[in-house]
């Protein structure tokens, strides 16, 4: 339909039969933005022998320096995403111990290793040397979270400990008491002011830097809360996911303490991570579908569903550029997916059959 010379920006032509304003007509005629295509096959698959099928552990993390740390049995391995070089960082078998969590520091120069025996070691990866050993937990440490030089650790002993990893420490140990069962999720907010913790007691707590008691308590989940993720886009927005008896992803406004949206995913929620660049998030799942889902927020429409793992997808980490994720499962594989990328990676066009590579 042609515009008449005197049609203003806000008025339809007096001769138009359309009930729509000109601006609406222009919007309808404009080219549609293409729906982003997410490849349903991983662009890389790594062998990960002895990767444990244990919901309460956190055995995979990806550093800002583009290195993956993975706990396999009694060892921690480092895999460089740039060179594909594999390094064995440590072996706890002489101590009869098993790795139960790994976490990179914010600068990516240190990696913390939680263990079945309850102590946590800190390693300088530039020289592959242990620089600290933190005692204090009486049971396995399944969750770790860094805040600068301070490391928070969550354990089956129900405690969260916060310790300064510098020696000598400049901050005394803080003991956060609240959970009544194993602590299995720990995440600091983007501004490093609040720590969210999830436990096998179905509780989600939020802690601040001053109090030794939680400043917020959320009790809506009906199963263990391992999956926790703070939005990098909406200040104070926290997402959490519940285990097999719950299956829900729930969103919380921690500024007001109010619950927001929730969605029943139909299966155990193992992990959550937000996109760094857009208002989307990815969830990984266990019983019964072992799937990976990408969601738009706040509409909670599903953008993609990825399958391939034959065991529950217990481990998830986001690449430093925010475009890819790595997932791990008890099927002893790590799978790399481009879920948030703006353009299709050239690597994806290679045959998936040629990408099976061992991590050790």
TrEMBL record:
Pfam families reported for this sequence: WD40_CDC20-Fz
Matches recorded under Gene3D superfamilies: YVTN repeat-like/Quinoprotein amine dehydrogenase
WD repeat ranges per the UniProt record: 92-133, 176-217, 306-347
Which example biological process does GO assign this protein? cell division
- What highest taxon heads this organism's lineage? Eukaryota
InterPro entries attached to this UniProt entry: Cdc20/Fizzy, WD40/YVTN_repeat-like_dom_sf, WD40_CDC20-Fz, WD40_repeat_CS, WD40_repeat_dom_sf, WD40_rpt
GO MF annotation list: anaphase-promoting complex binding; ubiquitin ligase activator activity
Protein keywords: Cell cycle, Cell division, Mitosis, Repeat, WD repeat
| GO cellular component term of the entry, any | anaphase-promoting complex
Keyword Cell cycle among record annotations: yes
The record's annotation in CDD domains points to: WD40
Output the SMART domains linked to this UniProt entry.
Answer: WD40
Q: What pathway annotation does it carry? A: Protein modification; protein ubiquitination
Residue ranges of every copy of the CDC20/Fizzy WD40 domain listed in the record? 46-337
Please report which protein family the annotation says this sequence is part of: Belongs to the WD repeat CDC20/Fizzy family.
PANTHER family associated with the record:
CELL DIVISION CYCLE 20 CDC20 FIZZY -RELATED, FIZZY-RELATED PROTEIN HOMOLOG
Stated name of the protein: Fizzy-related protein homolog
Organism whose genome encodes this protein: Tenebrio molitor
């Amino acid at each position: 339909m042609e515009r008449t010379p005197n049609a203003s920006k806000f008025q339809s032509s007096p001769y138009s039969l359309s009930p729509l304003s000109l601006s609406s007509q222009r919007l309808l005629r404009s080219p549609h933005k293409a729906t982003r295509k997410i490849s349903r096959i991983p662009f890389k698959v790594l062998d990960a022998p002895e990767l444990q099928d244990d919901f309460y552990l956190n055995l995979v993390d990806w550093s800002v320096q583009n290195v993956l740390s993975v706990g396999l049995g009694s060892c921690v391995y480092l895999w460089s995403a740039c060179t594909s070089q594999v390094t064995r960082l440590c072996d706890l078998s002489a101590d009869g111990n098993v790795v139960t969590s790994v976490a990179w520091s914010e600068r990516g120069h240190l990696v913390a290793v939680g263990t079945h025996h309850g102590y946590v070691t800190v390693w300088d990866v530039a020289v592959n040397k242990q620089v600290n050993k933190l005692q204090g937990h009486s049971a396995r440490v399944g969750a770790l979270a860094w805040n600068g030089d301070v490391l928070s650790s969550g354990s089956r002993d129900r405690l969260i400990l916060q310790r300064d990893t510098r020696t000598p420490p400049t901050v005394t140990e803080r003991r956060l008491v609240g959970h009544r069962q194993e602590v299995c999720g720990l995440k600091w907010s983007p501004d490093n002011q609040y720590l969210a913790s999830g436990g096998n007691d179905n509780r989600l707590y939020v802690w601040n830097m001053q109090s030794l008691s939680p400043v917020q308590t959320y009790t809506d989940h009906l199963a263990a809360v391992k999956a926790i993720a703070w939005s990098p886009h909406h200040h104070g927005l926290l997402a959490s996911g519940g285990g097999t008896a719950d299956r829900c992803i729930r969103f919380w406004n921690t500024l007001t303490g109010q619950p927001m949206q929730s969605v029943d995913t139909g299966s155990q929620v193992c992990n959550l991570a937000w996109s760094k660049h857009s208002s989307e998030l990815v969830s990984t799942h266990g019983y019964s579908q072992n799937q990976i889902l990408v969601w738009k927020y706040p509409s909670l429409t599903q953008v993609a569903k990825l399958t391939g793992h034959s065991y529950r997808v217990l481990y998830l980490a986001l690449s430093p550029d925010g475009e890819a994720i790595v997932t791990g499962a008890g099927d002893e594989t790590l799978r790399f997916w481009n879920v948030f990328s703006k353009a299709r990676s050239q690597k994806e066009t290679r045959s998936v059959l040629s990408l099976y590579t061992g991590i050790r």
